[in-house]
Amino acid sequence: MTLDRSSHFRLLAVVSVLVWLAACARVPIETKIRPDIHSAQDLRARLLARAQAIQSFEAKGRVTYISPDQKYNGTANFLGSKPQTLRVDVLNFWGQSALSIHTDGDELQILDYRQGKLFRGPVTTRNLAAFIPPVKISELLEVLTGSVVLSPQGPAQMTYMAEQDQYRLDLSNQDRPGHTVLWVDAQNLQIMAGEWSDAQKQLLFKVKFQDYQPEGRYTLPHQIILTTGDNKRQLRLHYRELTVNPQVTSEALTLMVPAQVQQVPFPP
Questions:
Q1: N or C: which end of the chain has fewer CB within 10 A?
Q2: In what helix (H) or strand (E) does residue 43 lie, and over which residues does it extend?
Q3: What is the pLDDT of residues 76-121, one digit of tens each?
Q4: CB–CB of 58/79 below 8 Å?
């Protein structure tokens, strides 16, 4: 029996499909295991464990700050050590430090190289509000690595939102009167957004985490948007490089102040 040209091509196509199906049958399909979360306590414990595993970080990228008084967009280097030590160097066009910010949680130092001035004073909401939304330094350090400050105890409620495939986690803050709401991806347990309110349920600030990328053992956001509740101040971060748990020395975190710099106190 001879096959015409058309029948020959059809036979080859059928054989190719059968071979492909047989190959697929031998290769196991990798399925992602969905995290087993049964309660708000389970979810909070998983988020807390991940946050506690990250004790320091180093990052390079772009920073954008928007307020009624000013707008800034440029590159910056970040170096943080929990619970509340942070140094940020904002760079000029030539890659030199134009503005350095340092805090140990108690004192805030801002060195303006262009003006030749060092502004320093206690860490207060008033002093911080000129640069970031009203958060504690310890809270900011958690936010910079895609997390929030979480207490292991206290009331917690969880709601699964099927349409978004997310958990909504409602938490009461034991450290201060107020309320925290987190939206967590159900597949990866990554925090996608958060809101903080005071005791009167007035929105204080909110955060969005985007562009999650693997960083060693962890998958962390490379875009972070922190906004005040009234939407008047916003801090946007876009990491180009991010290192988790680097060896951080006290020398690297210390702000070296030139002798000729004028020191200007912050308002008490």
A1: N
A2: helix 40-53
A3: 999 999 988 999 999 988 888 888 989 998 898 989 988 999 999 8
A4: yes
Kindly report the CA angle at 138 between 132 and 141, in degrees rounded to 5? 70
Indicate the helix (H) or strand (E) that contains 61. Answer: strand 56-66
Tens digit of each residue's pLDDT (9 = 90 or more) over 246-263 = 999 988 988 888 888 999
The C-alpha atoms of residue 65 and residue 89 are separated, in whole angstroms, by: 14
- DSSP-derived secondary structure for 202-226: -EEEEEEEEEEEEETTEEEEEEEEE
Nearest to residue 238, comparing CAs of 27, 120, 74?
A: 74
- Model pTM score: 0.81
Contacts of 105 (CB under 8 A, 6+ apart): 83, 84, 85, 123, 137, 138
